Structure to design on (290 residues):
């Protein structure tokens, strides 16, 4: 995480806003300075009081700030399919003892290459019958609706933990499959191979937003960590939690299985920041600790 250069640039902009007589000048930094597809990035507005009102946006999409590290911070998810390029950001701060402050700049989104797998399969194996197609569409809409709900409380604290106690990292985030010449949606999570029955735990504190049994994901749990951040646990064998339940980081929520469309027992672990499908690995590596 190198925010140094971004910090200098942001500071220059803040000076332009003719910021008045305070001892410590406010500053804005992005971490990482140039996020890639799938990253959970975060913006740090330093040297503003906890009581300050901080709001902002990236590319017109709102940021939700929380008090952090001598100022305020907000997460920003870069979707798997986000178009690389420069995105305009803006931050506004209203504080009792100071002039209102506005800062702005551009955030460079860098392209990340994902693997592409081309397969030719008999059509009967890939085309769903109309009823199943309708079911799968309705279910993915239900998931999307769940992620649109922005809980104003921040439930998560400290480091995110791996949801299964197996060696190694989850694999396959962002992988694209082209079946019979038709591009399918990219793989939105990381797969952890583990024996059926292996305990699955909440990656951080939160509240159970959804428990369901869907066609593709199988038995699933969605955990709401607040402020638009969600983690997803798919293909579970058993589920030990109910909707609305509060969870602590590391608390068991079910066990690894092969329900839904799965070739063998594994945990599909996903993360969602508002509408952005993000790489859970970047969540596990988040350097924002309190
Ligand atoms: Zn998966």
């Amino acid at each position: 995480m190198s925010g140094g250069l971004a910090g200098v640039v942001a500071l220059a902009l803040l000076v332009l806003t003719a910021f008045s007589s305070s001892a410590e000048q406010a500053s804005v930094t992005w971490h990482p300075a140039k996020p890639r597809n799938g990253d959970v990035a975060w913006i740090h507005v330093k040297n503003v009081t906890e009581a300050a009102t901080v709001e902002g946006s990236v590319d017109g999409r709102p940021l939700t700030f929380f008090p952090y590290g001598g100022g305020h911070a907000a997460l920003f998810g870069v979707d798997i399919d986000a178009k690389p390029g420069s995105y305009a950001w803006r931050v506004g701060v209203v504080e009792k003892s100071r002039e209102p402050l506005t800062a702005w700049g551009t955030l460079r989104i860098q392209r990340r290459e994902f693997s592409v797998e081309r397969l030719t399969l008999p059509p009967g194996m890939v085309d769903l019958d109309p009823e199943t197609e309708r079911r799968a569409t309705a279910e993915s809409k239900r998931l999307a609706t769940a992620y649109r709900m922005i809980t104003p409380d921040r439930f998560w604290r400290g480091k995110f933990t791996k949801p299964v106690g197996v060696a190694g990292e989850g694999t396959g985030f962002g992988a694209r499959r082209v079946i019979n010449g038709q591009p399918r949606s990219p793989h939105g999570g990381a797969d952890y191979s583990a024996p059926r029955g292996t305990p699955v735990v909440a990656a951080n504190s939160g509240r159970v937003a959804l428990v369901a049994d869907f066609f593709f994901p199988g038995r699933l749990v969605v955990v709401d960590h607040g402020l638009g951040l969600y983690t997803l646990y798919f293909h579970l064998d058993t589920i030990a939690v109910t909707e609305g339940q509060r969870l602590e980081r590391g608390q068991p929520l079910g066990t690894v299985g092969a329900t839904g469309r799965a070739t063998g027992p594994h945990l599909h672990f996903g993360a969602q920041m508002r509408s952005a499908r993000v790489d859970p690995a970047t969540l596990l590596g988040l350097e924002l600790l309190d």
User: Anything to note?
Assistant: The two ends are 17 Å apart (CA to CA).
